[in-house]
Design a protein that fits this description.
The complex is a heterodimer.
Chain A lengths: L3 H23 L4 H12 L11 H21 L2 H32 L6 H8 L4 H10 L6 H26 L4 H36 L4 H21 L4 H13 L4 H25 L9 H25 L4 H9 L7 H11 L5 H23 L1 H12 L18 E5 L3 H13 L2 E6 L5 H6 L3 E4 L5 H6 L7 E4 L4 H10 L4 E5 L3 H9 L4 E3 L1 H18 L1 H19 L1
Parallel strand pairs in A: 1-2, 1-4, 2-3, 4-5, 5-6
Helix pairs in contact in A: 1-2, 2-11, 3-10, 3-11, 4-5, 4-7, 4-12, 5-14, 6-7, 6-15, 7-8, 7-13, 7-14, 8-10, 9-10, 12-13, 12-15, 13-16, 14-15, 22-23
Chain B lengths: L2 H22 L4 H14 L6 H18 L2 H5 L3 H24 L4 H12 L3 H7 L1 H5 L3 H29 L3 H25 L7 H21 L4 H12 L5 H26 L6 H27 L4 H9 L6 H12 L5 H23 L1 H11 L11 E2 L8 E4 L3 H12 L4 E5 L2 H9 L3 E4 L5 H6 L7 E4 L4 H8 L7 E4 L3 H9 L4 E3 L1 H18 L1 H24 L1
Parallel strand pairs in B: 2-3, 2-5, 3-4, 5-6, 6-7
Antiparallel strand pairs in B: 1-4
Classes of the chains: A mainly alpha, B mainly alpha.
Chain lengths: 554, 547
């Protein structure tokens, strides 16, 4: 951790990373590249003032764990079942295709005996890059996003096997296969138990503290660390342990909020992870630039064609096939880990290491652009892909919302509003972040999303754009501004705390701005007038009002 | 499995168990973390000092981020004087106690700070409802806490030379960093704020750059670590996006601060000998002397006894600022183990006690009242600005709803007066030439002045259950309209004899319901609704401008 000796270099690193990330964001480029570049500039390859050490390694490790935890939190089990089979097939076959391609390529580039090692290293795609970028662009919940996550998890399982093989120097395929079987078995066993346990025990444990955001977060983190320790004990990778921890939590109602809390920590540790990749490039790593560029130029299209062909074969629509494949074209950071192990075990030479690390970094850089621009690229190729369209090709039913009503914030007003809306609209979605309501809402006939409306993913999940009626009872001005901006044809009612806020919301197109104080003051004035002028009617009205209160009580 | 992962696992499991427990006992979380640490150290765990440094840095940074110096201007002089008085009297007493018990001057200084400042994290959380409802003692507590936090930073800056051993240059460097932070905040940030986009990742990186940058500078020039991390947060505190920053850094802070407070627990040992005596004295000074002193002073200043005591009771703990400071100083070897143990133990105990004293604050006050300790200073009278009224309406509270109603009553030509105990609100009412009584609705004297016996109706806009309960049972009041938060409370008040009880949510829901039905019937309705209300809002805005 930070000691006074290092604080200067930490400060410089963070500053450079900030500046580069700022430039990257400004030019609409992925920040991943900015981080790797920061590492390269400050590390041995550049100015040589910062070096990779225990701190960066530990933080990188934590980063990967948090990232996988985050993915796990994202996954709804029912939805992953849909993509489980295709992910398994595509990822498996593609690893073989890529490995064979990479093997031939390394032979051609003259790596001879090391070709097999390189082939294995290059056959994986990068969980870190893909998931980070998908999360940044809120694409994790889309069908291509889910397919990618599924495939990456399958690859991660394979990584565990390859790593343990490389570490123990096993070359005989039979124990490896045996080990693979073992890993899959253990992982599915744990997945099963943790998910069932998750529903029962975790939801009880978490329920106790669910109205306290801070306590909830600490519980989540504790659960993650327990999973890390257990998976370490039984020989699974930390990544898989973290993933399962997230997965089991995802099945209880408040997980989406936890996800948003985990995100900044993930961002922080992953930034260190990518900086560390830059830091770990040795000065002599540059000798193999030419070969690495050639390798990238061949590997990236090869991976894309492999993924695209397979996805298309499984009868997904061209759009899904294209988008899910373009995300997966880079070489995994795992190649660097494997390379480091190989180098220390004298399985490969420095030249080979340089080739591997450069290809990894270059392909990652290239692929981050491709992921960031995947929508645009698809637009470019759409007309050519039309040829592949076929009535048989169907995406899985990704939930489509239409003509529904959305209520943001659930209070007394929300409760009675929901009743009327239920009669008029096919579906009523309630978004609320107060966990005191969660039990009641979970049981109700409304669709319920627990979380903060300020977060993009939660807005997406509510299908705001296609809603017919939106009412926000949240006092948060920011959230209400976004609601009014994003709504398209819907009738929008939003709450404001002041006249100024109300004016701004009306200017943006809100149909009705709710001002709680005004609302009830209006009524109170009426009652004062009645009390003063027509005491008889006042008494009658109060009678009626009291009956109304009794009703509400039950 | 790396060592850090094992440590973190232990830390978070222990924290999660303790948090569940403290939640159940309605206790604040900090003592829970400290106890978790004590248990861990008993089990043989130790936590790297790195976590102390990182945690302290994040905590100080977030405090800075939440501090808006502009708000100091609105702090009334009574809060300012209270803070200075408490700081000086308690600080000096504790310093002398420390000296007598044989602690060295630096130790005694830290002991002094620990009783002088209260915990804004805990104190403010306990009076959150009162702050929201704008009750006077909520407002007073809030500003005293704010002043104390700023005060501690100032004291740290002044003594940074003594603490770091760097002498005057350290003081100068600390002051320079704070001034630099204020300068960047007020002159440089406004220039670039438009160019900064709202990305959470960038917000996080920017804050981390500032934090690490300031700390690097502070270690270079021997400035105070704590003050410089605070200064880094202060730089961004005016930022329009500081909400974004808070939200992004919040979880990171939560992560490291949990580890921080647990680490504090692992370092504490049971204070023995003089340190034990010191701990007891610190506890007494912080949870008895401090609230009493604050209350006496506020009464002397002319506040009513209830407001004074409730404000005092919200201050009855050792602050987290002194705690963070002492841990940090202990880790780098400036503070002795005895003094550190005393501060940490006293902090844990007083923070726990504080949650009880706030739960029973009304009861404590009533007991003191019976004992005759808590009497309002009679020399200072309530104020009113009229002779006598008859057949008038009394409006309680001059917040938004109170203003609405006053406006309505004026338009309909009724005689009315306003009762309010917040001097700022009274100013507003007197600017409008409304009749008012300045005083607490819980006191009879206030009602005498309002000529309640000859009034025809009292309309309360105060949504505090305990106050409504008392009002409805007051026989002097002829007729009363009350506000309740929920239906249950409303029914109780009706049964107790209220003429009308409004439940804002229910009245509001009725209004909204009718609009929804309108919209569903035809789209013309929604355009009409929009147009009508937009005009109304514009009218309101124009009215404000004319004023």
């Amino acid at each position: 951790m930070a000691t006074e000796l290092e604080i200067g270099s930490i400060a410089i690193t963070v500053m450079i990373a900030t500046i580069l990330a700022f430039v990257a964001r400004h030019r609409k480029q992925p920040t991943v590249i900015a981080y790797v570049l920061t590492g390269a500039i400050l590390g041995p390859i550049g100015l040589s003032i910062v070096s990779s050490g225990t701190f960066t390694r530990t933080a990188s490790e934590l980063g990967l764990s948090f990232l996988l935890f985050f993915i796990g939190l994202e996954i709804d089990l029912e939805q992953i079942q849909e993509v489980a089979k295709p992910s398994f097939l595509i990822a498996g076959i593609n690893m073989l295709i890529t490995a064979s391609g990479a093997y031939l390529l390394s032979l051609a580039l003259g790596f001879g005996t090391y070709a097999l090692f390189i082939a294995v290293a290059f056959s994986f795609s990068s969980t870190a890059v893909v998931v980070k970028l998908l999360a940044d662009s809120d694409q994790l919940a889309t069908l291509p996003g889910k397919l990618d996550v599924g495939m990456l998890l399958v690859q991660d399982l394979a990584v565990v096997v390859v790593l343990s093989a490389a570490q123990s120097g096993i070359s005989n395929p039979i124990p490896i296969l045996f080990h693979l079987g073992e890993v899959v078995l253990i992982a599915s066993l744990i997945a099963f138990t943790s998910v069932t346990a998750g529903k029962k025990i975790l939801s009880r444990w978490f329920n106790q503290i669910s109205d306290d955001k801070h306590a909830f977060f600490i519980h989540g983190i504790a659960w993650l660390f327990i999973a890390l320790v257990i998976s370490g004990e039984i020989g699974l990778s930390k990544e898989i342990g973290a993933f399962l921890a997230g997965l089991s939590l995802a099945q209880i109602p408040y997980s989406s909020e936890l996800k948003e809390e985990v995100r900044p920590l993930t961002d922080l540790f992953m930034a260190i992870f990518f900086i560390d990749i830059g830091l770990r490039m040795a000065p002599d790593a540059l000798i193999m630039v030419q070969e690495a560029v050639i390798a990238t130029a061949i590997l990236v299209p090869l991976k894309f064609i492999g993924f695209f062909g397979l996805t298309d074969k499984l009868k997904f629509t061209p759009e899904t096939s294209f988008k899910s494949s373009i995300n997966m074209v880079q070489v995994s950071e795992f190649a660097l880990v494997l390379g480091a192990i190989g180098l220390s075990g004298d399985l490969i030479t420095k030249d080979v290491m340089s080739f591997i690390s450069l290809t990894t970094v270059i392909s990652m850089a290239l692929s981050s652009y491709l992921i960031a621009k995947s929508g645009k690229l698809f637009g470019l190729f759409e007309k050519y892909l039309k040829v592949l369209e076929d009535d048989e090709k169907k995406d899985f039913n990704v939930r489509k919302l239409e003509d529904h009503a959305v209520i943001i914030g659930y209070d007394k007003i929300g409760e009675s509003v929901a009743e009327i809306l239920q009669e008029e609209f096919e579906k009523v979605i309630i978004i609320d972040r107060n966990s005191k309501n969660s039990r009641e809402l979970g049981k109700s006939s409304y669709e319920y999303i627990f979380g903060d409306f300020k977060h993009g993913e939660i807005r997406n999940a509510a299908g705001l754009k296609d809603a017919s009626f939106i009412i926000s009872l949240s006092p948060e001005f920011e959230a209400n501004l976004k609601t009014v901006e994003e709504a398209e044809d819907a009738t929008v009612f939003v709450k404001a705390e002041s006249v100024e806020e109300a004016a701004e919301l009306y200017d943006l197109g809100a149909h009705y701005v709710i001002m709680k104080n005004e609302l009830s003051s209006e009524k109170v004035k009426e009652y004062i007038r009645l009390w003063n002028e027509k005491p008889e009617i006042f008494r009658e009205e109060v009678e009626k009002y009291r009956e109304n209160l009794e009703d509400k009580d039950e | 499995m790396s060592e850090i992962t094992t440590t973190l696992t232990a830390v978070f499991i222990a924290s999660s168990v303790m948090l569940a427990l403290t939640k159940k006992l309605r206790q604040p979380s900090i003592p829970g973390y400290i106890v978790a640490g004590v248990i861990l150290s008993y089990l043989g765990f130790s936590i790297s000092n790195g976590f102390i440094q990182v945690g302290a840095a994040f905590l100080a940074f977030i405090f800075g981020l939440k501090t808006e110096p502009e708000r100091l201007k609105s702090v009334a002089s009574d809060s300012f004087k209270t803070t200075v008085l408490l700081g000086a009297v308690l600080g000096i007493i504790t310093y002398l106690v420390g000296q007598m018990l044989g602690f060295n001057p630096i130790d005694s200084l830290f002991l002094g700070i620990s009783t002088a400042a209260s915990s804004s994290l805990i104190g403010l959380e306990l009076v959150r409802e009162e702050i929201r409802a704008e009750v006077l003692h909520g407002r007073l507590s809030e500003s005293v806490h704010l002043m104390q936090d700023v005060g501690v930073v100032a004291v740290i800056a002044v003594f940074s030379g003594t603490i770091t051993g760097g002498g005057f240059p350290s003081v100068a460097a600390t002051a320079a960093l704070l001034i630099f932070a204020l300068f960047v905040r007020s002159t440089i940030l406004p220039l670039i704020e438009d160019r900064i986009e709202r990305s959470r990742e960038i917000a996080m990186l920017t804050s981390l750059s500032l934090l690490t940058g300031f700390i690097a500078l502070s270690s270079q020039y021997d400035a105070s670590f704590f003050a410089s991390a605070f200064a880094a947060g202060l730089t961004l505190s005016k930022f329009p996006y500081n909400m974004e920053t808070l939200e992004t850094l919040g979880p990171i802070k939560d992560f490291f601060s949990a580890a921080f407070f647990v680490a504090v627990g692992t370092l504490v040992s049971f204070p023995g000998g003089d340190a034990f005596l010191a701990t007891l004295l610190l506890i007494f000074l912080a949870s008895v002397t401090k609230p009493m002193l604050a209350a006496f002073y506020l009464i002397y200043e002319g506040h009513d006894a209830r407001t004074a005591y409730l404000t005092g009771l919200s201050l009855d703990q050792v602050g987290e600022f002194p705690l963070i400071l002492s841990v940090q100083a202990f880790v780098i070897g400036t503070l002795s183990a005895g003094a550190f143990d005393a501060v940490a133990a006293a902090a844990a105990v007083t923070m726990s006690l504080s949650s009880y004293s706030s739960l029973y604050d009304e009861k404590i006050f009533r007991v003191l009242e019976k004992l005759g300790v808590a009497e309002t200073n009679n020399k200072i009278e309530n104020k009113k600005n009229f002779e006598t009224l008859k057949d008038h309406i009394i409006v309680l509270g001059y917040d938004v709803p109170g203003k609405e109603i006053a406006n309505f009553l004026e338009e309909s030509g009724e005689k009315f007066l306003i009762v309010e105990n917040n001097p700022d609100k009274i100013m507003e009412a007197s600017e409008k030439n409304y009749n008012y009584v300045f005083g607490d609705v819980m006191r009879d004297e206030t009602w005498d002045m309002a000529d309640v016996e000859s009034s025809k109706l009292v309309v309360s806009t105060i949504p505090v259950a305990s106050i409504s309960q008392r009002l409805v049972n007051m026989e002097r009041i002829p007729s009363i309209f009350l506000v309740a938060d929920g239906t249950k409370e409303a029914r109780k008040l009706f049964e107790a004899g209220a003429d009308f009880v409004q439940v804002p949510d229910i009245l509001g829901a009725e209004e909204i319901k009718s609009h929804i039905e309108g919209v569903i019937e035809g789209t013309d309705y929604r355009e009409e609704l929009r147009r009508k209300n937009l005009l109304e809002i514009r009218r309101h805005l124009n009215m404000d401008e004319e004023r």
